[in-house]
Amino acid sequence: MAEHMDLHTVGDLLHHYPRRYAERGELTALADLPLDEHVTVVAQVADARVHTFNKGGRGKGQRLEVTITDGSGRMQLVFFGRTVHFHQKELLPGRRAMFAGKVGLFNRRLQLAHPEYKLLDAESSTETVRAFANELLPIYPACKQLESWTIEQSVGIALDSMAATAWQGLVDPLPPALREGRGLTDLPDALMKIHRPRTKADIADARDRLKWDEAFVLQVALARRRHADTQLHAVARRPAADGLLTAFDAKLPFTLTDGQQKVSKEIFDDLATEHPMHRLLQGEVGSGKTLVALRAMLAVVDAGGQAAMLAPTEVLAQQHHRSVTEMMGELAEGGMLGGAENATKVVLLTGSMGTAARRQALLDLVTGEAGVVIGTHALIEDKVQFHDLGLVVVDEQHRFGVEQRDALRGKGKQPPHLLVMTATPIPRTVAMTVFGDLETSVLDQLPAGRSPIASHVVPAADKPHFLARAWERVREEVEAGHQAYVVCPRIGDEEDQKQSAKRKPSPEDEAEKRPPLAVVEVAEQLRRGPLAGLRVEVLHGRMHPDDKDEVMRRFAAGEVDVLVATTVIEVGVNVPNATAMVIMDADRFGVSQLHQLRGRVGRGSAAGLCLLVTEMPEASPARQRLNAVAATLDGFELSRIDLEQRREGDVLGQAQSGARSSLRMLAVIDDEEVIAAAREEATALVLADPDLTAHPELRTALDALLDKEREEYLEKG
Questions:
Q1: What gap in Å lies between CA 113 and CA 463, rounded to an integer?
Q2: Which residue in 333, 400, 338, 404 sits closest to 371, CA to CA?
Q3: Mapping DSSP to helix (H, G, I), strand (E, B) and coil, where does residue 220 land?
Q4: 3-state SS, residue 537
Q5: What is the pLDDT of residues 70-88, one digit of tens each?
Q6: Scanning 45, 148, 338, 433, which has the fewest C-beta atoms within 10 Å of its C-beta?
Q7: Mean pLDDT of the chain
Q8: Burial of 62 (0-12, 13-18, 19+ CB in 10 A)
Q9: Cβ contacts of residue 423 below 8 Å, gap of 6+?
Q10: Integer CA distances (angstroms), 539 to 132, 134, 183, 555, 675, in order
Q11: pLDDT in tens, 444-484
Q12: Residues 6+ apart with CB under 8 A from 584
């Protein structure tokens, strides 16, 4: 069990809940069996016959073919070898059994070869058979080495011995007052009901209770983090009455949206307190998050501090630096001729800067000349010192490790305020669980002047003429004076080929028998073929930073018609004149990533167009994913779809997708009410008793949930 199912203790086993329940009366439909999956079916033997066959020069062999039925369909079981006659005696026509095995295909019919089985009608009295027929059969998540009923028997042994010792050693994390107030069953009862339910109501009772355990313990962990943060001391940063921020607002050629004003107020209120702000700012692609962050940075500079903005890539850091200095104008020219009197310096710090420029930037930071610094991971290095770091803004949180945030936080004399931004919308419940130690602000209004984006799936394999039309559309956009992006999953240079030689091919590669399309090759084909005569350039992450910046600058200046790029353009690239995007092998990108990429077009007054090119067949899950992206521009809706497909993953660990989850019963999307209620209860309990002195059982449950690695993950925020 430890080796194959990661179950090490009796507690692990009791919390390994059934995946579903079969009623002996209700048969699992044979008509719906998935190919290549490990299944358990309840069915009746219709027919069983032994056949003799030639073993090709090695004598004769025997095989038993058994046909089973469940009313919805029929299926064949097959057994070979010496045990054929034993199985024939057991599997008499009319007998019912549970069969488990991997669904295979033979002669175009579904079959189970050598399934494990357990007879359900072994000579028993009518009463026991009747009781047996009405019983709910737990079917557990199982694997080849451990069948569902082996797990069931083991759970039975554990339950009986726990009950015999009056459940000694069982830790109930819910305080009695909370349990009674919410009308939840006690833990021994819940475990009995989930593993040995007599009715469906038993299962519902048990689930309600066990969901609360998971939600509550997790929310207590997060509430303790928030409480610990409020105990830290930070410098309150209030902007000066007629300072830099006022001058900047006066320069803006437009008014802030209501959403921007509301979120700015939340941030300024946090900055004015004497403990560090921890806020997550999430907003749709292009909702104006950068402007909100910049105003917060200027408020801190006004109050005598410095602000640092961390970007995940050099392209993005350079882009932010360029757009911030443009927006600020003479206010970014502190200490220079022509700079405004209350101006500050805005410096860029990246790993690939020349020595002289880097030395000057470091000097501006340590003397406090530079109020605003924008950079990549280079900001975190030991050499970088600040005069008085007051605010850290992290752009695109999901690309930025907790350790890096932590290292930057350590640069302040006291903990700086922290603002985390993401354009990947996160459903409210996920924000409450994954980012539960951050307060959340949402920007859901798009600024005036943003255009709608039309999205379409282009099925290149089924309808090649659709792809030809896609390139015509790109030409039409360019002829109308606009520009376009073409995005590919891979680069296609020598380094790329070395790496892909080492890599195992993905299921998509196997299905298509070809590697994902590459920037270098696609650009060449387009120059020679459908986009001949247009100015086509390449951009990817392994180019020299100066070359990347040069290409990006020329594209922004309109000197390039079509930019063929990898996902380096995914975040923050802002070229209002780019109106079309073609994403090649779109099925190889995640839902959120496609939404991010699409947000690069339609940033000006002209409408945007996004074409998702795929060779996957109509009925595949990949196509359904693409259809979902094409059908809506609502990032929050897409993030729900994305999450439903990926499962929550381990909410506390760094694995953000469907690996082993610490949530067994709780579904982050469906159980919004439980999570919200658990958060309230947890916050109140931690406020009254931060060290959980009066709740030793809850402490024990927390220690079990927060192993060393997860504890550190939360510690670093």
A1: 40
A2: 333
A3: helix
A4: strand
A5: 888 889 999 988 889 999 9
A6: 338
A7: 83
A8: middle
A9: 282, 283, 284, 285, 287, 289, 396, 571, 596, 599, 635
A10: 66, 65, 59, 10, 43
A11: 776 666 677 899 999 998 888 999 999 999 999 999 999 99
A12: 486, 487, 488, 489, 517, 522, 613
Tell me which of 509 and 589 has the higher pLDDT.
589
Strand partners, 442: 282
Cβ atoms of residues 83 and 94 within 8 Å = no
The torsion angles phi and psi of 302, rounded to 5 degrees, stand at -55, -40
Query: Other CB atoms closer than 10 Å to residue 242's CB: what's the count?
Result: 10
Q: Where are the beta strands (DSSP E) in 471-556?
A: 483-487, 536-539
Sheet with 278-283, side-by-side order of all strands: 345-349, 370-375, 306-310, 389-395, 417-422, 278-283, 439-443
- What local confidence, expressed as pLDDT, does residue 449 receive? 67
Q: Is 110 exposed, middle or buried (0-12, 13-18, 19+ CB in 10 A)?
A: middle
- Residue in the structure block whose two tokens are 């060779």: 615
Alpha-carbon distance 352 to 175, whole Å? 55
Residue 605, Cβ density class (10 Å: 0-12 exposed, 13-18 middle, ≥19 buried): exposed
Comparing CA positions, the residue from 404, 364, 365 lying closest to residue 388 is 365
Q: What is the SS3 assignment for 23?
A: strand
d(CA 572, CA 317): 9
CA–CA separation, 354 and 346 (whole Å): 17
**Residue 56 clears pLDDT 80, i.e. is over it:** no
Average pLDDT over residues 556-577: 84
Task: Please count the residues of the chain.
Answer: 717
Q: Could you identify the residue written with the tokens 């080849």? A: 144
Whether the CB-CB separation of 193 and 677 falls below 8 Å is answered with no
Pairing of strands 278-283, 439-443: parallel
List, in sequence order, every residue forming a beta bridge with 348; answer none if it has no partner: 374
| pLDDT for position 544 | 85
Structure tokens at 696: 């030793």
Token pair for 602: 């339609």
pLDDT in tens, 248-297: 999 998 888 888 999 999 999 999 999 889 898 988 766 788 899 999 99
- At 484, list the tokens: 């376009």
Q: Which two tokens stand for residue 171?
A: 């830790």
pLDDT recorded at residue 658:
32
Q: What are phi and psi of 130, to 5 degrees?
A: -65, -45
Distance, CA of 428 to CA of 222 (rounded, Å): 15
Average confidence (pLDDT) over 139-157: 87
Rounded average pLDDT over 334-354: 82
User: Is the pLDDT confidence value at 717 over 50?
Assistant: no
Least confident range from 140-154, 161-175, 334-348, 528-542: namely 334-348
The residues, ordered by sequence, that sit 6+ positions from 487 with a Cβ below 8 Å of its Cβ are 564, 565, 566, 567, 569, 581, 582, 583, 584, 597
Whether 152 has a pLDDT exceeding 60, the answer reads: yes
